[in-house]
Model the fold of this input.
Amino acid sequence: MVESFGSHSAHEGYEGSSGGCDWLFELYTFRMNETVHSSRKPPKRTNDPERTMAGIIAVATAEFAAKGLAGGRIDAIADATHTSKRMIYYYYGSKEGLYLAVLEDAYRRIRATEAELHLADLSPVEALKALVGFTFDHHHSNQDFIRLVMNENIERGAYLAQSKLIQELNVSAIQSIEELYKRGVKDKVFRKGLDPIDIHASISALTFFNVSNRYTFDLIFKRNGQTAKALAARRQSVVDMVLRFVSYSNPS
Done:
C-alpha cells in the first residue's frame, strides 16, 4: 500500500515532489483510518429463527393464496424474505411442508382471535351476534384465508389431512358455539335439537361466500357488493339469518 499510494510511488513523493510533507501526512492519515476501521468488529448477524419463520409464513401465505400450491414458487418467497431456498427447506422440509405450515397458521390465527371475543361474558344472543359478525369481518379483511381454503379444497384436502394439529386447532370453534348454544337453550332463546357443527357450517357458508364469489356474483348481477354500505347491509343480513335459524320457536 505504501509503494502505490495515490498517484505517486513512495520514492517519487519523498524525493521529487515539492509537497513531500503533504504526501507523508496523507499516508499517515490513510494508515490511521485503515487501523481504526480494521479494528471494528463486523455487526453481528441477528439470529432470530422465530422472526425469520414468521416472515416466511407471511410471504408464503400471499404466494400460495394467489397461485395455489402448484403455482407458488419457493424462489419468489426466498427473494421477498431475503432468505434462501436452503433456509426455507431447513425450516419446513419441502414446498409442501411450507404450504401445510401456512394452512395451519391461517387456522391458528382465526381461532386465536375468536378467543379474544370472550363470548362466555355475553348473553347467548349477543354472543352469537358477536361471533357471526366477527367471522364476516375476518373473512372480508383476510381474503387470503378464503383463497387458501379454496385452493386446499381443489386439492381435496390432501395436505390438510397430513396435519397433526388441524383438529386440535379447530376444537375451540365448536366448543364456543356449543357452550353459547346450550346457554341459549337453557334460557329458552334458542330452540333444541341443533348440532353445533351445523351451526358453525351455516356461519362459515354465509360469511365465506361474500369473499369467494364476490367477482362472479357482482359481475352476473351488475352490482358492487363491496361498498361500505353494501357490506354493512350484508353483514346484518347474515347475522339475522343465523340468529333466526337458532331462535326458539313454539309451534302451535
About this structure: Residues 1-21, 27-32, 34-45 have pLDDT under 50 and may be disordered.
